[in-house]
Amino acid sequence: MKMKNISEFKETLSLATNIVIIPHKNPDGDAMGSTLGLCNYLNQIQKNATVITPNDYPNFLKWLPYNNEVVIFENNTQRAKNLIAEADLIFTLDFNHLGRCGELKPLLEANKKATFVMIDHHQQPDVYAKFMYSDPDMCSTCEMVYHFLEQLGDLKLINKEIATCLYTGIMTDTGSFRYRSTTSTTHRVIASLIDAGAKNTQIHERIYDTNTLNKLQLKGVALKNLRLFPEYRTAYIKLSQKELNDHNFKKGDTEGFVNIGLSIDGIMFAVIFIENENIIKMSFRSKGNFSVNQFARNHFEGGGHDNAAGGKSDLTLNETIEKFMTILPQYKTELLNS
Prior knowledge:
Blueprint: H1 6-15, E1 18-22, H2 29-44, E2 48-53, E3 71-72, H3 77-86, E4 89-93, H4 105-110, E5 115-120, E6 131-134, H5 141-151, H6 160-173, H7 184-195, H8 200-208, H9 213-224, E7 227-229, E8 234-239, H10 241-246, H11 258-262, E9 269-276, E10 279-286, H12 292-299, E11 303-304, E12 308-313, H13 317-327, H14 332-337
Parallel strand pairs: 1-2, 1-4, 2-3, 4-5, 5-6, 8-9
Antiparallel strand pairs: 7-8, 9-10, 10-12, 11-12
Helix pairs in contact: 2-5, 2-6, 5-6, 6-7, 6-8
């Protein structure tokens, strides 16, 4: 899928003087890779562009090129407010409704002069952007940024730094190229990024081989808390606030834990419940045709992709799990046949 009105967008971009690029709250590899990659491109064409994140993000992403230029709203609130208020072009990447950017939402809505651009691969987008590049079939927003530059005729401007950022997001959002959203086109894009200077082995090591002892021990707790329900082809993990505190939890430490259950033979649906102050955060993963996006939307105020989604609950940890277990039988036939 291509962005509509690409010629009109080029004219808008040519006139823009102050640009901000926003990822979703709790940005992951795809969010940071896509925003930093796009920002580097815009700076190359002599545009004043800044990435503003709603909050901080994991240390394993802070080696990315130009990370030091990111403005983190929760740490530098006034500067972020000023940049958003002065922007005449605002990119929102890796999310498709403004509620996903937390406390930045009212600031973005207050800027009535800016033109909004959405680049995203999640389902059921809100219509808030003048220029929308939305494609749920795409494996990652980073791959979409690559194709976006292709539509602009600027693939030649992809340098080592942009290639590194985009490779990182594609790699993390495809589970190292194993999810079904990974296509032959994805691999051709990856080949192009390696040719442009992305060091695939080095990127993998910086993302996946920087564990702390606390994180590995927390993973041991997650394994101990793993519960299986073969009659529903389902597994879940729970982590309490105390268990997080006992292991000096840092943002990103539970990344990938939800996939533990999905790695078990015969399991098609995996969930992790994480207690975070007064909210229970959930991640859902599935195989086959079982849509965790729809499950999360129906029951836990969430959404995402067919095989990867998130949700939340205002109940206690145990109450949330009890609610989940009362809902699960409704999906027994679907899970057994997926």
